[in-house]
Design brief:
Shape: elongated
CATH topology: Rossmann fold
CATH architecture: 3-Layer(aba) Sandwich
Distance between the termini: 37 Å
Strand content: 15-25%
CATH superfamily: Vaccinia Virus protein VP39
Radius of gyration: 18 Å
CATH class: Alpha Beta
Number of domains: 1
Order of helices and strands: HEEHEHEHHHEEHHHEE
Number of helices: 9
Number of strands: 8
Largest sheet: 6 strands, mixed
Strand order of the largest sheet: 2-1-3-4-8-5
Length: about 240
């Protein structure tokens, strides 16, 4: 399994929920970053993802972010982790999260404008362009949620176990593994010829030592400050 909860990132998400007892997790997927020890209502429209949820987590409600089947102000907090870029109607989904929540709305996402700083942009520019187009602007999220909000840059640990792209900033060989790439949805938006060209270039520069000459210091860097962001909006 390539996509898992990284406990250090989870610490930031759970802290942002404050003392909330009831939490709605929108676009919950298989349950990554879902807190235990709180009363969580998970919402996930994909049956395949609902079936992947472990037994220790509650069953997810079959619903979408855009039409949450709950009354107003019925949760202490709401969360959405690495999912808002997949919603059909982003603004409607954000308004629904705000409608059903008395307290903070917590969103873990990526800042597309920061992705250009990642070394992978040199090898797979088509991938980075596709990802930048998918992730909503942080300012847009804040405006749609209203109220007061903060944005935090979340550091990515060198041994991050959540397999998104920047998680492998110090482990470039990982991108040569098609299992890793299949777990990163952005590759699905890249032409197969362009993807192959990107991987061939990376493989060649790893073999020649060129990647290490340019970026080898990252192999020892304990954390990476990239595009991962935590948006916390209060009513």
């Amino acid at each position: 399994m390539q996509r898992r909860t990284d406990p250090r990132i989870a610490t930031h998400v759970h802290a942002a929920l404050g003392d909330a007892r009831t939490v709605v997790n929108v676009g919950a997927g298989a349950g990554s970053y879902e807190p235990v020890g709180r009363e969580v209502t998970a919402v996930e429209p994909s049956s395949a993802m609902r079936e992947q949820r472990p037994d220790y987590l509650p069953e997810a409600v079959d619903a979408t972010a855009e039409a949450l089947p709950f009354p107003n102000d019925c949760f202490d907090a709401a969360m959405a982790t690495i999912t808002v870029h997949q919603w059909r109607d982003l603004d409607r989904g954000l308004l629904e999260m705000r409608r059903v929540t008395r307290g903070p709305v917590v969103i873990l996402t990526f800042d597309g404008t920061a992705l250009a700083n990642f070394w992978l942009a040199e090898y797979a520019p088509e991938l980075i362009a596709a990802e930048r187009a998918r992730y909503p602007a942080i300012a847009h999220l804040r405006a749609a949620l209203g109220g007061t909000s903060t944005v935090s840059e979340i550091p990515i640990p060198i041994d991050c176990v959540d397999g998104f792209g920047e998680a492998f900033y110090a482990r470039p060989e990982s991108f040569l593994d098609d299992r890793v790439r299949r777990a990163q949805s952005g590759w699905g938006f890249v032409d197969s010829h362009a993807a192959a060209r990107s991987i061939d270039l990376l493989r060649a520069e790893l073999a020649s030592g060129e990647w290490d000459r340019k970026y080898g210091a990252l192999r020892e860097q304990p954390e990476y400050h990239g595009s991962l962001r935590l948006v916390v909006a209060q009513p």
